[in-house]
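Researcher: Please translate sequence to structure tokens.
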Amino acid sequence: MRQRDVRLLIGIIVVVVLAAWVVWPSNSGINIDLGPIHIHRNISVREGLDLRGGTRVLLEADVPADQQVTPDMMNAARAIVENRVNGLGVTEPSVQLVGQRRILVELPGISDPDQAVDTFKNTGLLEWIDAGSTYLQPGTVVKTDFGQSVAASSGNAATPTTAPTTGASGAVTTTSPVTGTNPLTSTNPVTGTAPVTTPTNQVFHTVLTGKDLKSASVGTDEVGAPEIQFELNPDGAKIFSDYTTNNVGKYLAIVMDKKVISCPRVNGPIPDGSGRITGQFPLAEAQSIVVQLKYGALPVPLKVIERESVGPTLGQDSVTRSLQAGVIGLIIVLLFMLIYYRLLGVLASAALLIYAMITFALFKLIPVTLTLPGITGFLLSVAMAVDANILIFERMKEELRHGKSMSASIEAGFSRAWTSIRDSNLSTIITCIILFWFGSTFGASTVKGFAITLFLGILISLFTAVVISRTFLRATFAYTGEKLREKQWLLGLK
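Model: Translation complete:
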């Protein structure tokens, strides 16, 4: 056996051991700590929406039909929506453009779809507005001089409430000065007797916007209630410092998408550009607001035009049936190879099992989100791998029938079958590229998943058929020599 073949055989053994370790059911992650090298990565199987269950949402630009929506605007909106969804901790979400004005979002395993949809469909425009001496009730919709105006609110604009105060270190909060815990009471912040109403037609001046925000996070106040802690960039901090210095005693309302979420009163200068937003919102809402603040405002508003929920029970049933079909098909293929090709079939079956192991390991490492069409693509690539081995073995048998030696038949079988294997697999790869483009362009995520798994399967099948099968045959010949040629039944010649 040549030295090159020995090295290949050792390499194959190493690859098989690593692939077996990756696909081992109890192995869900890579954890390496060697000096300066620290690698911690989850490699559990990623299941798609149709397998795990979840929510599929189709968004559309909420602008008049005659208003132009450029591809750059939609690409920016898609990136922001994807960042917001990732910020919610959703495992393997799919966010892709569909046509010119729509975005398809798939959320596998989402626990609160309503909260998620509200997070990524809102524009996320954060403003600090100068409310002067008027306290604005949280929930009030206002007009500002920044961006497009919206209609003023109705009845809730005139709700009386308590004046907010500053909290520790001068940070802006809305904690009640009366109770210290309840941010909303019926006490007038100015006179203590009459309610303060919101002027419905007033246009408020925007002091700062979300572009001046450096960071935002969820924290807790002195009594453990959720609050939003923010820090401004240097430019925003200077504007904030100048405003709070010159407007002590006035209200600086914090507005999200033209809706007031907090209206603190400035009790003193705040020079460090940091503050807190408190109010009567639960933890989930605070986290949603933080995600919108951190990942920016959408360039165009979005509306939900279609929403579909997929139950995990249906997905689990589909997985079970697909696995059963795959196992039955694989057993039938292996039996055919063993009965018809005998010794060659044993080597091909070993190469086929290695192919399946390496492919599944790549699915976990890349990672590839498995869907039903993706599993179909993988099973189809198994058939392509078997087809390559059949072409090679039939060529070998022809050379043996013509009286060539075992060594010459092995090399001729691979060299003469290569052109057919190359052309058939190349045409399949081109088809995969076309399907991937189609799925990405028109939002057909199932087609895209099928193309990805089939493409990877084809590449690995080429490797196993041309490298692993050939190495196994050469190793077998090195052990048996030309004596193997005389055992025609064992080679499937009789």
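Researcher: Any highlights?
Model: The radius of gyration is 32 Å.
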